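As described in the Methods, two query proteins were run sequentially through the folding procedure within a single session, without resetting any intermediate state between them. The first query and its resulting structure tokens are shown here.
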Amino acid sequence: MSSTAGQVLVRPIKAVVRGQKMMEGAGVRICRTLGTPALKNLDPFLMLDELKMPAHEAAAGFPDHPHRGFETCSIMLHGKMEHADSMGNKGVIGDGGVQWMTAGRGVIHSEMPVVTSGDLHGFQLWINLPAKDKMMKPRYQDYQAGDIPVAEKDGASVRVMAGDSMGTHGPIKLRNPGLLLDVRLAPGTTWQQAVPTEWNGFAYVYEGAGRVGDKAAQVEHAYVFHNEGDTVQATASEAGLKFLLVCGKPIGEQIVQYGPFVMNHELEIRQAFMDYQEGKLQRPEDNPWVDEKDELCSAVEHTSEVSGAEINAVEGQTADRPAAAAAAAAHDDSVRCRLSGICEGEPTSCQDGSAAANPADEDARLACLTSDAERAAAVQEAARHAWGGYRDCAWGHDELLPISCTGGHWLNLSLTMVDSLDTLYLLGMHREFEEAARWLADHLDVGAPAEVNLFETTIRILGGLLSAQALSADSHPGLSRMLAEKAAELGARLLPAFDSPSGVPYSDVNLRTGKGSMPAWGQISSLSEISSVSLEFTYLARITGHRAFEDTPLAVHDRLEGAHTDGGGLLGQYFNPITGKATRAHGSTITLGARSDSYYEYLLKQWLLTGKQTDWLRERYVKAMKSVRSRLLRRTAPAGRPGLWYVAEQSRQGKLSRKFDHLVCFLPGLLALGDFHRVSTVRTLQEAAADSAAEALEAAKAAARAAEAAAAEAAAAAAAVAAAEAAAKSAAGSAESGAEGSEAGGGDASPSLQQQQEQLAQQAEQARQAQQAQQAHRQPEQQHPRQQHAEQAEHAQQQSDHARHAKPQLGAGQDGRDIPDLQLAAELALTCYELYRRTPAGLAPEIVHFANNTEIPLDFPNKHVHDVGQGDFSIKPNDAHNLLRPESVESFYILWKATGDPRYKQWAWQVFRALEKWARVRASDRGHACAACQAEAAERCAAAAEAEKAAAAASEGGSAGSEGGEPAAAAAAAAAGEASGCPPELPGGKERCSSCSSSGGYTSLESVLSVPPPRRDKMESFFVAETLKYLCCRKRKRFS
């Protein structure tokens, strides 16, 4: 606290910055002030984040991520955090501890919560390094609470981490002069701190209220001090005040920041990114830091005071980690294994029997199941659990809301029941199948709903009825016939959607009136909506004999044939049902993801359904897949290991986006299915030769254009030389005349003419040099394009002949157009599996963005984030949800059936374990909702009892002859009836609370980046209808 004896000038506040809430690390919520658009940085400080949340919600922490060019300071108020880095350093700080890390030339580290109970509350501050120190050797130091001195005086308590305050010196030695204080003021206390005028500084309020400088203090706000004045001041209100004071001398250098790298120039940022991708971020000689003979670092000798119990907890984490993870972690370094305990390989707990000794650890039990029969039984039990939840909580509704144990409406067609019929039958749940089918035959009114979506109703309701009809035709002929009748009626009510001027169907249709319509936000129908319903309608035509069911949807493909982009078989996302043409009003992205995926899928499957007779379907499938290979297929290129193949998206302007929907994971299975039926999408030898010739011709044209540009530049340079020489001569003549005039007048030569003459001479010389440079760098004479075309074609033919006899190797430079279908299917399936393996929850997000390794990706997060994709892809918080989708496990199932490779069964099993661990809803998950409902029911029961007493009293009074007795008794009886009594055998009204049901279900997840992942209260119909069906892999039988 500064002396008030002399004159002090209190600094005013020049900016107030409100904290912004965002997700960081592996889905951890933080509040950021410094490092936001409102306050990008405050030299030398770059960022300040506050972490404040229950520890179990932050369990995923901040796994491995890189840094270069600055320092980090982590301050813990409550909870414990473990640091581990690529130099071999490891340390834990608890309440009041501080971690200081100098990233210098590069380090990769993680910061993970040690405990999963209680709250975490702390901060992280980024401090810039001057240019001379940005490539210094990385260092790490931690300080426990006892290492941080506390200065106390007149109601102020200050933890001095760095700098000086109230005569106390902090242990952290800053590379740049500064202050780092944790200030806590008792109610009514005013506190001052001397700060040099030239220093920048701010205060971050994290608790209490009062004033900072001349502004009212609020939590989660930063107060930036003006540089006028030599003292900062704060006053606490009656609630007290707690804040961080951060001040420092500016470095005064340019700051270029890109995500976790902070340098002085953009080229240095690009180099840092390249070094990270190539595994060169840290130098080999950067061994674990030891105290070197460096004045700055040797000034402090510090030994961490970490108890043996804490060390054991850090190294083993066995107390809080699942048994399977603790036993198998040595074989699997994935974040899924570390945080969810779902690891590759059989854990030792299965071998020594410890898993069986703990029946409460359900995942440990599942990890030990190895036979097909055991695993199939586990999936069947999951199906019974999901169906039981729907039966008890949402019977007849479209969807199950499993946490609240209620039903949800969408199509008003008993969606989950219809969609799940074939799964019930195939999994041997015949009693459940019969019950559901009979209920639908009696109660499903396909004409009751008004507006429905044509696509969703066709694939889920019509498809569900037809698949159940086909499966049960022999075993349940009566039910099968009734299901066929329902399907025929529904098909007839859906068909008017095609009654548009163009024949391209409307997206929606009214099942009562038969009138088609479009969404309110535009006159559009998506590619999937208009093209993917033909499969179900074709089968309906076969069983009913009505050709219109088949011909009408297939006729849409004639419209689509003329809309292919560049003749390559790929189509945009949206069409106008009025004109029948592709529309750009709502985007014409080419994608195999949402709103387009099933068009490409159904080309092949429709061909198979026609008995392989309709060749144009197969031809369009092959054409489209060849275009996917040539235009959209890409591969990441991380250092030191193979990259991941993926399918990009293409915008209307032709620009590629590395966005990848989980929906695209249908493609591996589709390619495998095509390969099984001898359909190849690999380019032919003739196509390869033509491609090479076209590429050579394009290269020649580009070279010719470059040569023409060089010649034009040379001509321009020659003209500039001539003009400069002429101007120089003119200037020389003017100078000579001026000199003569001056001589005659007895004066000096004009300085302006001399300067002009020198300037023009210099320009002439520069022009000559430019001309020489252009001539020196001219391209050699180009081959004639026809000659290049022929040579390239011959070379391509030789390469293709060689490839026929060589085993395909998926090298980093292999052309995706030449990979055999089954091999490409395997590579894409691996990509889809990695979307599961590389997330903390072990489940794939809805969308990822793959990395472009040739330049800094536009979507590389410009903030402190965890790259769960390990350099291959990143996940944005808004895309991190999981809807229990089936596409990946469907592809694993098809690849297993086609190849017999057991890895696909293992991948599916790991997905199932993650679903069981995080998505399964148990009765205990509804505890809070059940307790609240029971309390409310108990209040209603008590009210009913009081009302009954009042009614009885009123009745007695009426019978005694009171004039108003009859109306009063009637009113009391009515009140008692409305309150409704509570049966004595069920106290508390438990029977009225659906949330108290013991039934289960499975729920979608809000974010796979958190462990445990937050939940959404919804079970999509396709979870039982598809996901569980494909997970139930029994004995392999090849496709027939």
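Immediately afterward, the second query was submitted; its sequence and tokens are:
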Amino acid sequence: MTISLPVQFPEALPLTQKLDEIKAAISAHQVIIVGGETGSGKTTQLPKICIDLGRGQNGMIGHTQPRRLAARTVSQRIADELQVSLGQEVGYQVRFNDHSSPATQIKLMTDGILLAEIQQDPELKAYDTIIIDEAHERSLNIDFLLGYLKGLLDKRPDLKLIITSATIDLDKFSRHFDGAPIVEVSGRTFPVDIHYQPIAEEEDQELAESIIKAVRELFRMERSESHKAGDVLVFLSGEREIRDVAQALRKARLGNTEVLPLYARLGNKEQNRVFQSHAGRRIVLATNVAETSITVPGITCVIDPGTARMSRYSVRSKVQRLPIEAISKASANQRAGRCGRIAPGICIRLYSEEDFQSRPDFTDTEITRTNLASVILQMHALGLGDIASFPFIDKPENKAINDGLKLLQEIGAVNQDNQLSKAGRLMARLPVDPRFARMLLDAGSRNCLAELLIIVSAMSIQDPRERPMDRQQAADEKHRQFEHPGSDFLGFIKLWTVYEEQRQSCTRNQLRKYCQKHFLSFMRMREWREIHRQLHLQCRELGLKENRQPGDEDSIHQALLSGLISQVARRHEDSEYLGTRNRKFQVFPGSVLFKKKTKWLLSAELVETSRLYARLNAGIKAEWIEAAAGELLKHEYLEPHWEKKRGEIMAYEKVTLYGLTLVERRKVSFSKIDPALSRELFIRQALVPLDIDTRLDFYQHNRKLIEQITELEDKTRRRDILIDDDSLFEFYDTRLTEQICSQKQLEAWYKKLDREAAASLFLTEADLTRNDTQKLNLDEFPDQLSTPTMALKLAYEFSPGKSDDGVSVDVPVSALQQLSREDLDWLVPGMLREKCIALVKALPKNLRKHFVPVPDVIERLLPAIREKKEGSLQHILAKALTSVAGVRIDPALWRNYSLESHLHMNIRVLDEQGNLLDSSRDLHKLQDKYAEIAQQHLQVHAESSIERRGITEWDFGELALTHEIKHGDIRLTAYPALLDEEDSVALTLCDTASLAATETRWGIVRLLMLKSRSQVKYLQKNLLKNPQLLLLLSHFGSREEVLGQLIRASFRHAFLHSDSLPKNADEFDRLYDAGRAKLVSKAESLEKELGQIMQLYHELLQQLDSLNLAKGSELREDIALQLDELLHADFICDTPEQYYFELVRYLQAVSQRLEKYPRQPEKDQQWTEVLQTFYADYLQEYENLVSQNRVSSELENFRWMLEEFRVSVFAQNLGTRYPISEKRLRKFWQEKIIGNQF
């Protein structure tokens, strides 16, 4: 079925008078502009004219409306006039609703629907005619369509385009479409009387009272001036105001008056009531949807508060806002025109005439009021091309376009090529600022979407918390319950939670009173909930799932950060923060963080009043910013340098975000950042200066050769023998491949070289030297300093100004007192000439003049001086000079004169391990400082006459604690000890008292066994007879070996209960008498315990194998190490008694650890790392003591504390011998192990 022709046009409509002109223009031109005032009939009649011209046959007639409500009502009106069913020949489509069919010829739709169709039908082939209605509103969608259609017309010459507008700047539309003809149609209107009735303030309650007052005034004027009684249209800013005013009007009891709302989101049934016939008077409360888009019938009076909610982008805060603003003159006149359709009308403006005259002529186009990031995002989503080249009627500034693109790149909506990302497509479908959309997407992945919906919807409205000027303190007190101590954002969640509890438990009136009592705007809270609901539904459509459990606070802030990445700052000084792009600001006094010293801050917006303030803040962590910023970060790499420990080139990384420093100085590997420079630095800072810890043969060869030549330079104090660093660099640079920039790479590469290539890396003396070294007399630079009592090592360094410049002598602290100043004054033969010259030059001028030229004089005297090398150099030199000049030279002249430091011997005091204790060129100072320590660290230099072997009974008298011996002029203190030699003991000397005590303990055990031969035989016969136990013990040696340990342990535990040991035969005999009765029972208990230990040990091995752990896994390695320590080859006799009987518990703890491991591998790994750190420290100290031939009871205690610590972390139920923790271990190590070394 098609629409019947000819089409009928109402004669009363002004547009009908221009019917022929319009038809001719449409037929002759591809584009026409139709301008007409409200009521001219252009909206309903233009589609009919197109039908009458035969349009709609090869495609639909598309007719766009700015609002859904208008699309629905206009389609119904046209269908009625054409006498067809709505949804058939005439249909409409709005979001979520499509009332059209294949038979549809005229399709009403929102401009957004037409834009969306462009994605599927770029050339709009479904239409042969398009009517863009209400183009003067200049919404973003309209501007998009006008720009897009301008480019489409050349591709679709068959397409007709009709632009309709109020008579507002029609020439601009004509110019845009290359001079398209304009047809103006007068409106069908009656005169309208304008009355100004300004109100003092525009707060909700006062506005409602002013509207009621205006309504009563209208009724009065109608009665007194005989105006036709009609309906009243009241314009309001939004749904909140409509609800508030409607409630007030109903309470006013105006009589025979119906109050109806009208706004876009109202249901169809409620919207239809406005257009239905009725009895009595009607007051329609509408948003600006009734300003141009639709005609409300029966209106004779208009009340205009003069405001509307405008979407406007704040460049400073970079947030899309919806403030209520004063409307333009054009909008005010449009509103007034709504009451002159059927009869003379009255318009009451709730503002002054002066206010009206001061307003702008036209409303700002939406593209100038909107965040261009949002515009660009929607254009990308709709496939409308590059915004910079898009033919907008009013083209945005390039600066604004670039700013929008940068913001979209910042939040990941577009990539670096400005192509829409997957996330960007999702953001484009959320009806909020792109940054808020980014937060919601991120929240979905962080399991905190429920919280972000609350926060984002709250940030999309004006803060519902009210703070009246006269009751600020009271308001603050009430609002304090909604605060979160560390975040303004989380305060919204607290407020939402409390409000929702009240809303669900209170009546509407009670809820309103609650809000009033707590200084909350009832209407804003409702608006908050409405926006939250819309976002909730939209997120559900996108497949974003809300979390049921409360979201983690850190996750919430990280989700917020994803959309506000440039709104971060760090504390700068005092109360000031430094943000991105070098913005300095303070926290707003109303923020919970106002007086808190938060290091890193996230802010929703920056507002400038008397100064720049940050509103809505939260404390965050720097690592969150770095993780969220990604490619927005700028990385600088400073001070690339070689690190021997890491074996590679490292650098310090500086990370900034828009100029804000996030990381000041972080050490990173430089090889991947700049391989070429890393290679150069590797050669210059590692290979050339010999600063690599590697065993590569060429490197060791080169190192040895360079050190020899460097030592030669140090000795001769010359720097012209060894080639320079650049020559060495060139040597390696020509031989190493370009990929080598670390020690690991060098070693791997070298292993693959053939013999010839490897040989090319070996330096020769010819490669390394610039001068002939044969002429140098190296005998004048000996490696040792010989004194009457000892020979000391010498070291040379040529580093003027450094502490070790010159020649240094290494002196053991025990030998320090045997040195004399005379030993050191002579330095070495090769430096004697220079020192003598310096001494002569130091003489007073009246004496020095006798020895000119000084070098020649010294050259003649030097052989004689060297022959006299005994005693003081100054005395011998003075005698030699006196003999030459005949003038007496007093050695005292040099007493207070300071020569250059390298002409004095540098004394390096070493401990007994050869470690440097101190250094100075003042011998007496060092001798005074280390007088006592030298005695304590004397080493044993000779055997003592008290030493004796083959002892089988206590026949050597008193066992002294110390013994003094002599070695030349050095006196040493040694410590007597009894050494176990199995069939006897030996009386020997030890370096330290602790070592002597340890050895003596086992020596006494051996003497006790020699005295108890019958009991030993009994034990050898009766112990370890169980075959099963012997089988379990086979891993630890033969029966004889294990039995020997068990018997020694039995004697030790039966006789030696304390640390004190017998010092003579009587004490030894008393010890024997006191313990022999306990021996057998002690041995039996040890054997019994041993059986349990072995059983557990083998079970553990099976349990460990059952886990199928990799050979090198940390768990297997750690447990293997623990078992080796607990059950080593001599554990039976070496383990102290108190811990021997704890071994079963320790092994049970290992078993429980293995049982728990599959459930908590990460936790096990954490504790393993802690234990490995402690054990590494213990092992290092143990090896250090072994190298010094010393023992430490405190270190032994620490070793068993580690076992108790293992029980506490892996098998807490087994209990520990004493309280133990990681903190206690560290304290014990610091105080007892480290502290005892000093």
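Residues 201-205, 938-944 have pLDDT under 50 and may be disordered. We note this only descriptively and draw no conclusion about the first query from it.
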